[in-house]
Amino acid sequence: MAAPMSRLLFRPLQRIVMWNSGCRPLSLLSLACSTHNKTNEAVKSIDSPWRLFGAVCLQRPAVISQDRSPLEEQFANLMHQMELEKSLLSDHELRLLEDAERMSRKQAEDYDSEDEDTTEQEIVTAQDLEDIWEQKLKQFKPAARVTGHVVLLVKEQVGSEEVWMLPQLPWEAGETLQQTAERALISLPGNNSKVTFLGNAPCGFYKFKFPKNIRTQSCVGAKVFFFKALLLSGSLSNIQEKKHMWVNKSELRDYLKPEYLKQVERFLMDL
Fold first, then answer.
1. Quick one: pLDDT at residue 11?
2. Which stretch of DSSP H or E encloses residue 115?
3. Rounded to an integer, what distance in angstroms lies between the CA atom of residue 206 and that of residue 204?
4. What is the pLDDT of residues 125-182, one digit of tens each?
């Protein structure tokens, strides 16, 4: 009796579901797909004056060498001494010897200036050059050692102004914002790097208006969605040197605009 009773209880529920779905049973998958399609059609029908952009915050560890161990320091000193003993004299060292020989001849009692081969008097000797270089060395201050991660910046043309920013590209229909950010990296010339994105959702957002000379009613400004990524291997060495640079977190304020920098600092942290 259990089986017939279960069929009798199930039939009214089945008729209700089939009637609500147009005489065809519904499923969660088909409901989700139909909702997604309707959402896409609604988005396409909206003509927004704001352009969507996908940007990537690409970070990599600073390329530095670790301090030498005592054994490595001894070996480096030994190699330096061997190179010094076996190498030939440089032009500057030869000039030092010539200056010293000339000075010894001038101090001799039988010195005759007509015996000198040079017709012009030496004003600056090699020792004078060394003194000048020594003074410049004392004034030199090495830059601070960068130990954190550095961020990739690129220079883009915005209207008539060149602006430093994170790599970004406008969103195209049919792709996700993360795919747009990935395309922004791939589109960089000479890029042979391998990166990994940290998550599928944006980590930050920035909204700005275009310059007045290019702003229209249908194109007011841009909404930029940031994604974070790490450089695993490869390099960006083939990019034009003046069009990109790696900077640390403290140097960002020297290149990014204040409002842009405020949004970037919200999600940027030392990894």
1. 41
2. none
3. 7
4. 888 888 999 999 999 888 766 667 889 999 888 777 888 999 999 999 999 999 999 9
Containing 152, the helix (H) or strand (E) segment is strand 149-158
Cα 221 to Cα 212: distance, rounded to the nearest angstrom: 10
Q: What CA dihedral angle connects 196, 202, 205 and 210, to 10 degrees?
A: 70
Q: 264: Cβ–Cβ under 8 A, 6 or more apart, which residues? A: 57, 166, 204, 206, 226, 252, 256
Q: Is residue 121 within 8 Å of residue 38, measured between CB atoms?
A: no
Measured CA distances, 209 to 48, 159, 223, 224, 254 (Å): 13, 11, 9, 11, 22
Q: How many CB atoms lie within 10 A of CB 228?
A: 21
Check if the beta carbon of residue 187 is closer than 8 Å to that of residue 243: no
- Displacement of CA 270 from its chain's centroid (Å): 14
Dihedrals φ, ψ of 80, to 5°?
-65, -40
Please state whether beta strands 149-158 and 168-170 pair in parallel, antiparallel, or not at all (unpaired): unpaired
Do residues 166 and 264 make contact, with C-beta atoms less than 8 angstroms apart? yes
- At CA 69, angle to CA 63 and CA 75, rounded to 5? 105
Residue with tokens 């001894």: 74
Helix (H, G, I), strand (E, B) or coil at 188: coil
Helix, strand, coil in percent for the chain, rounding step 5: 45, 20, 35
